[in-house]
Structures are given as C-alpha cells and as structure tokens.
C-alpha cells in the first residue's frame, strides 16, 4: 500500500494553459517532496487538458477532469480537499508559481504546533511575462506598513479582531499551507461567493487556532486580465461580498474601538464610489446600501471624506476630457475676434 503523503497539492485549473507548465514544474521542483499532486480541470476550452495529461505518468499526480463547468473556483477548492489524503493542503492556483523552498518552509512551521491552522508567506506580484510588479500586500500598508515584511506567529482570533475585520491579509491562496482537518471543521470554502470566499475561509480557520507568516516572498501571484478577480470586480460583486465578510466577522469578534472606527471608514471608501457611479445598476446600489447599514450605524458620517474624494476624482476626470475641446473652442473664438 502506498504511504499517505504529508501534503496534498491541489491545482484547480480553468483556461490557464499558457501558465500551467511553469506552475506544475515549480511544484515538482520543491525541496520538500512528500506530497501528492491533484490536477483539476473545470472544462477548459484551451489546451489545458493536453498539458495536464502530460504529467499523468508522474506517480504523485492524479488527474480529475470535470464533465461540466462548476462555475466556481471555491467549488473546485472543496472538491480538491475532498480528494486529498494529506494532513496539510496547498492550493497552488494554476496561474501562479513558487520558489522551490515554499513548501519546505511552510510545512516546517505547521509541524511546530498542532494548534497552527495555516501558515503563509509573502507574495510577489508578477505580470504575464513574469515581470516583478511589487508585493501583493500593499492593500495592508495603510493598516500596518511593517507587519508583512517580517516573520510572525500570532493568535488567530486576535488577528481577526485587528486585521481580518478590515481587509484580507492573505492576498493569494498559492501562498498558504493549511491543515485539512481545520478546513473540514469550518465546512470548507463558501461556494456562494465569487470573490471573497478565500478571505472568509482564512478568517474562519484563524478563529480555530494560531497562524504563522514568513516575510520572505516565496510565492509569485500573477495578475492578468483573465483572472477571476478582474472579471468579478467589473461586475461589482466584490463590493457586496467585502461588506458581507466584514459583517460576518463582526459577528465573530469584537474589534477595539479604534479598529471599529477604521472599519467604518474603509467600508465608506468602498460603497461611496459604487453608489455615485453611473455604471452600477440601481438594484446593486440598493443591495450595497443594505449591507452597509448592517455594518455601520453612521454610514453617511463616515462617507463624507470618501464622498469628497470621489467627487474630486470625477471633476478631474471630466475636466481632462473637456479641457482639450474647451481650449480649442476658446482659441477659435479668440481668432475670430
């Protein structure tokens, strides 16, 4: 009988043929080798399946191809975890890639403490051509500019009270190794979400114990036009789901007063631009306002600053569009005189 692997690596793929070889080769090159590799495909329409099939001869690899598209990355995560035999899980997203030491470093952290629910590392942002584009934690810099530059181990509930309640500190699943038993205890990823299911998942697992972080950027998080996050952002789903996760977290923990005030300001910075945009449908605006009122008892007080900033941006944008025509018109009027 084949021994159980310590780690199950899940690669959920949909139409990422151009990135797959780099993704899988960076997994097979890991310095830690006690793993199984579960390759999922959600009915890709590109050359993904032939590329994945080329790895079928590796004894560590298992191929699982859907007969119908699931329509949800989080359904694929849950499917992969159900298939997994390892104690630890690494969801290595199909368009990312990793330093050869990522798995070794994160597994060693998980092994230090049975209360550790997950460990993650810093992520570099990269473009399609692998060009470095900064770090993926810039959204957390206004909260704490130094915290994600160095290693730490923390109580998960406290992390939720201070950080998760404001933003998702874990920008990319490919940077995380987590305990399968914890994932199962919380019921897995929320399949009703399109964008923020990962944020809710990490927070729910953090609430169950401790988490660890490595400040060295061992993960490469790829940004490109075809990513799920880019598509859903255009559909305004992200604003509603952000508000939904914040409300859920406020039901789990009680943040300090200063953090709670900051939550109100952050919420306003999301909903005000959406409400003032002509591109957002009226029914979506109503849904956003319902979510806001569930979180913030003083939404309009906190909206003053973001509202003014949005108005200034709109005026500046309209002026940039209008100024050339105005200059040309005023010049012609002057010439006629």
Number of distinct beta strands: 10
The major pleated sheet works out as: 10 strands, mixed
Number of domains: 2
Instruction: Report the CATH superfamily of the largest domain.
Output: Spore Coat Polysaccharide Biosynthesis Protein SpsA, Chain A
User: How helical, in percent, are the residues?
Assistant: 40-55%
Order of helices and strands: EHEHEHEEHEEEHEHHEHHHHHH
What separation lies between the terminal Cα atoms?
95 Å
- Low-confidence parts lasting 5 or more residues at pLDDT below 50? none
Structural class: alpha/beta
What's the CATH C level of the largest domain?
A: Alpha Beta
Number of helices: 13
Instruction: Look at the structure and give the mean pLDDT.
Output: 88
Describe the protein's architecture and organization.
With about 325 residues, this protein is α/β, with parallel strands linked by helices. It has two domains: about 5-225, Spore Coat Polysaccharide Biosynthesis Protein SpsA, Chain A (Alpha-Beta Complex); about 235-310, no CATH class. The chain is built from 13 helices and ten strands. It has helices at about 15-30, 50-55, 75-85, 100-110, 155-165, 180-185, 195-205, 230-235, 235-250, 255-275, 280-295, 300, 305-335, and strands spanning about 5-15, 35-40, 60-65, 90, 95-100, 115-125, 130-135, 150-155, 175-180, 210-220. Strands 1, 2, 3, 4, 5, 6, 7, 8, 9 and 10 form a ten-stranded mixed sheet that branches. The longest helix has about 35 residues, at about 305-335.
């Amino acid at each position: 009988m084949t021994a159980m692997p310590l780690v199950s690596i899940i690669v959920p793929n949909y139409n990422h043929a151009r990135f797959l070889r780099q993704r899988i080769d960076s997994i097979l090159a890991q310095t830690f080798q006690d793993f199984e590799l579960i390759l999922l495909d959600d009915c890709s329409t590109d050359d993904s399946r032939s590329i994945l099939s080329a790895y079928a001869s590796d004894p560590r690899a298992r191929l699982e191809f859907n007969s119908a598209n699931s329509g949800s990355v989080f359904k694929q995560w849950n499917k992969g975890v159900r298939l997994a035999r390892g104690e630890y899980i690494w969801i290595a997203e199909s368009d990312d890639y990793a330093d050869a030491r990522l798995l070794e470093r994160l597994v060693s952290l998980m092994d230090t403490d049975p209360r550790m629910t997950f460990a993650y590392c810093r992520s570099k942002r990269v473009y399609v051509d692998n060009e470095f584009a900064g770090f993926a934690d810039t959204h957390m810099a206004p909260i704490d500019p130094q915290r994600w530059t160095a290693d730490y181990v923390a109580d998960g509930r406290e992390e939720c009270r201070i950080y998760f309640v404001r933003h998702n500190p874990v920008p990319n699943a490919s940077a995380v190794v987590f305990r399968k038993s914890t994932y199962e205890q919380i019921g897995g990823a929320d399949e009703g979400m399109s964008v923020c299911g990962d944020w809710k998942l990490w927070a729910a697992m953090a609430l169950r114990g401790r988490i660890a972080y490595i400040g060295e950027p061992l993960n490469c998080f790829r940004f490109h036009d075809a990513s799920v996050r880019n598509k859903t952002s255009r559909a305004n789903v992200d604003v509603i789901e952000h508000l939904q996760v914040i409300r859920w977290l406020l039901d789990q923990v009680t943040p300090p007063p200063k953090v709670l005030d900051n939550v109100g300001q952050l919420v306003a910075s999301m909903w005000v631009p959406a409400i003032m945009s002509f591109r957002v449908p009226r029914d979506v605006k109503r849904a956003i306002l319902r979510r806001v009122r569930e979180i913030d008892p003083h939404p309009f007080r906190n909206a003053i600053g973001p509202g003014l900033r949005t108005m200034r941006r709109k005026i500046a944008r309209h002026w940039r569009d209008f100024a050339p025509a105005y200059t040309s018109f005023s010049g012609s009027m002057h010439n006629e005189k």
